[in-house]
């Protein structure tokens, strides 16, 4: 038996119940090599990386490389966990490396038999016994490179599962880097970005070239309902050769949902993205194949497709290619391609935003579209200062048509009386501090109030994990902080039997500092140990019924339970798996107004509402680092004090977003459940934009929604208060949304007023 040559480092991998590696030999591609534990064989990729310092002089049998420019890590067949046990289990590439699985050099995609069908799977691939499986973890399953001295990074011949993903996040100046991924099969689900490359600042000189070669995704690759992306490209040159995607909910285009990010290298004059010899079908993520070019100036951005079939390359009746051409140096080129929409698309195949016209079609077939190219709708940027609704009455032309009462005839007196003496206060409903103990925030709780004052943040709901310690510290401020904590649980009986992830977090928020102790006493599953300063509790498993009991108990105390970042940890096709019980909250703004999680969580909330459930909206930055105003909620209260805020939170009488909303139906505010009666009127006033939300040259749209659709909409520029009154119809609920039409994301979501309360039973005679 030959020794494993110098420069090769083997990874055997360990089963979950094994703690120590014992091995004297290692088999790679059918050849057995003598190895020594701790010298050239290791239990994990991370351990091998720490020891990998030498570059091989020879190329092992079965590898189609002429030479290596860096150390080589060889993976055994079987499972290799990455990030499953938390951030300490992540794989961080801090040097140039080759990571080669047992199937290095073996293409998972056989040659096309029919170009209108995906490439057949190579029968030599996909066998669990012969594959090196990189297993991720939904929270921390990212292998990433950040060291500036990395020049070569190659991963070849593996399969990935359990939300494994890759990030190259170098931001400091460094050397040029070549990144290659070859012969890889990706198994879903994966709610995050599969291949992520951070933006390169203009003052960074390094060059990034990326090759993805012979890549295959699961059929119907699932994004967990989160809005993840397949590629976040930022570099000079990206080449994707022989990609097979047969259905995905991931975003295929090279931008986020509102198209505010782009994939260009700010330090290069030209960015080129090329796809060739590929099959792409049934793209169900936002924006089709989107090429955004915000802020590129006169730099060139070129998107090329060669010898590629694209079938149903967007959502229904959307363009397959949605591209920005803001200058004539940028463009889209299709050569020897088939672009087909089998559904009879009512628009063009290519939709262009900008004045450029550089679209080249060479020997390319376009079928199922009304035209080759067409202009994209231009989002409005100007709007009137005041919405004028002074007519006596008129009917909206919306899906759910309603009569509007002229403001000179409307009665706002009940609303004015209810809010008299109230001031708009802005809060963050999901924050973490460094309060010691089990807290994992970075900003000391002592520093929070000063930083809040700098930003115009009036209060914060503190939900430090697994403890109540912060409530009893001298730095706790009754005016500025609301009591809370954020546990987690594994729901054991989800409605969706095929749910790929059943973990959720939930924020428990309380009216006073002793309420958490009452919860822990009544729910012994938490297994609290210690006192108020040193104690901590665990994260028990719950059934849905027990979760609803917890929600009802906390609500009875005057607090509430919120489901934060619902699409981040769970993946279920049944919206009611995210529902924690009546009058619980669900975060519809997560981290920021334009985040993917905010888009997906809002859609989820609407689904839950339309199933007849009473669930309030919530919002939170979930900051574990700096205090920020990225995700506000707005309250009208008499004074700035935690008890005032918790009363509004408990009752749902507030709006998420940095805009004040006052809404009533016959004297009943947001969050109310009332009985419908003929002749009811809705009154509404929108005012008090937080400075972090209002933008000049921006058109906002005020929308009123019911369970039957859009009841009212009109544009305004956010400079003046807006008033509205509607004649109420028999609907399940009414609620308000304010959308930034210019930048394409919501900035305000109100809680509903429900009209589904059953009439009181008549007293017996």
Please give a structural write-up:
The chain is mostly beta strands and 765 residues long. The strands form eight sheets. It has a 19-stranded parallel sheet that branches. Strands 34, 35, 36, 39, 40, 42, 43, 44, 45, 49, 50, 52, 53 and 54 form a 14-stranded mixed sheet that branches. A hairpin with a 4-residue loop joins β52 and β53. It is globular, with a radius of gyration of 28 Å. The mean pLDDT is 93.
What is the compact description of this entry?
The protein has 765 residues and is mostly beta strands. Helix content is 9%, strand content 33%.
User: In percent, how much strand structure appears in the residues?
Assistant: 25-35%
Helix content: under 10%
Averaged pLDDT: 93
**Stretches where pLDDT falls below 50 for ≥5 residues?**
none
């Amino acid at each position: 038996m030959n020794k494993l040559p110098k420069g090769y480092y083997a990874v055997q991998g360990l089963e979950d119940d094994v703690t120590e590696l014992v091995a004297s030999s290692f088999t790679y591609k059918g050849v057995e090599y003598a190895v020594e534990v701790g010298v050239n064989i290791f239990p994990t990729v991370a351990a091998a990386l720490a020891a990998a310092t030498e570059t091989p002089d020879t190329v092992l049998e079965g590898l189609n490389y002429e030479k290596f420019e860096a150390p080589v890590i060889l993976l055994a067949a079987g499972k290799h966990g990455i990030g499953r046990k938390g951030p300490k289990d992540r794989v961080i590439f801090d040097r140039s490396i080759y990571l080669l699985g047992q199937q290095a050099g073996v293409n998972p995609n056989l040659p096309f038999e029919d170009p209108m069908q995906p490439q057949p799977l190579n029968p030599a691939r996909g066998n669990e016994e012969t594959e090196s499986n990189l297993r991720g973890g939904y929270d921390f399953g990212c292998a990433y490179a950040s060291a500036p001295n990395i020049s070569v990074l190659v991963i070849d011949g593996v399969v990935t599962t359990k939300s494994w993903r890759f990030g190259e996040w170098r931001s400091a100046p460094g050397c040029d880097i070549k990144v290659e991924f070859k012969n890889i099969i990706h198994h879903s689900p994966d709610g995050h970005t599969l291949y992520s490359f951070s933006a390169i600042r203009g003052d960074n000189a390094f060059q990034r070239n990326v090759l993805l070669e012979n890549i295959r995704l699961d059929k119907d690759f699932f994004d967990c309902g989160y809005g993840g992306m397949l590629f976040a490209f930022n570099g000079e040159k990206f080449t994707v050769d022989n990609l097979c995607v047969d259905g995905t909910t991931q975003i295929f285009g090279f931008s986020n949902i509102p198209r505010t990010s782009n994939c260009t290298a700010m330090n290069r004059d030209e960015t080129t993205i090329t796809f060739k010899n590929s099959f792409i079908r049934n793209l169900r993520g936002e924006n089709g194949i989107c090429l955004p070019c915000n802020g590129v100036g006169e730099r060139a951005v070129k998107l090329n497709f060669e010898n590629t079939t694209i079938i149903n390359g967007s959502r229904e009746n959307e363009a397959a290619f949605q591209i920005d051409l803001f200058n004539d140096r940028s463009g889209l080129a299709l050569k020897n391609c088939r672009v087909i929409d089998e559904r009879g698309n009512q628009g063009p195949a290519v939709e262009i935003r900008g004045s450029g016209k550089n679209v080249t079609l060479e020997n390319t077939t376009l079928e199922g579209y009304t035209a080759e190219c067409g202009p994209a709708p231009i989002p409005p940027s100007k709007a009137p200062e005041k919405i004028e609704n002074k007519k006596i009455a008129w009917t909206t032309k919306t899906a759910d048509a309603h009569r509007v009462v002229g403001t000179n005839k409307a009665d706002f007196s009940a609303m004015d009386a209810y809010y008299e003496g109230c001031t708009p206060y802005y809060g963050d409903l999901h924050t973490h501090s460094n309060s010691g103990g089990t807290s994992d925030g970075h900003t000391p709780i002592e520093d929070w109030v000063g930083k809040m004052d700098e930003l115009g943040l009036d209060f914060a709901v503190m939900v430090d994990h697994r403890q109540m310690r912060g409530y009893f510290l001298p730095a706790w401020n009754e005016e500025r902080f609301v009591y809370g904590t954020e546990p987690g649980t594994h729901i054991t009986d989800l409605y969706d039997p095929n749910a790929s992830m059943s973990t959720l977090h939930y924020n428990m928020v309380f009216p006073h500092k002793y309420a958490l102790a009452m919860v822990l006493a009544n729910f012994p599953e938490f297994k609290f140990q210690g006192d108020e300063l040193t104690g901590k509790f665990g994260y028990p498993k719950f059934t849905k019924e027990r979760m609803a009991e917890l929600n009802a108990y906390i609500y009875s105390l005057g607090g509430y339970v919120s489901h934060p970042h619902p699409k981040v940890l769970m993946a279920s096709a049944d919206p009611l798996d995210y529902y924690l019980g009546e009058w619980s909250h669900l975060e519809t703004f997560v981290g920021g107004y334009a985040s993917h999680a905010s888009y997906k969580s809002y859609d989820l909330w609407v689904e839950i509402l339309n199933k007849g459930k009473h669930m309030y909206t919530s919002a939170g930055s979930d900051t574990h680092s700096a205090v920020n105003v990225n995700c506000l909620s707005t309250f009208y209260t008499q004074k700035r004090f935690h008890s005032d805020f918790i009363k509004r939170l408990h009752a749902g009488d507030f709006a998420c977003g940095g805009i004040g909303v006052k809404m009533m139906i016959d004297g009943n505010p947001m969050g109310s459940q009332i009985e419908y009666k003929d002749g009811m009127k809705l009154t509404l006033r929108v005012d008090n934009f937080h400075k972090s939300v209002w933008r000049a040259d921006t058109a906002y749209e005020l929308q009123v929604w019911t369970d039957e659709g859009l009841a009212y909409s009109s544009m305004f520029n956010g400079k003046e208060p807006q008033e509205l009154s509607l004649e109420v119809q028999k609907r399940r609920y009414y609620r308000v949304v304010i959308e930034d039409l210019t930048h394409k994301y919501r900035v305000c979501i109100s809680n509903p007023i429900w009209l589904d309360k059953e009439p009181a039973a008549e007293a017996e005679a």
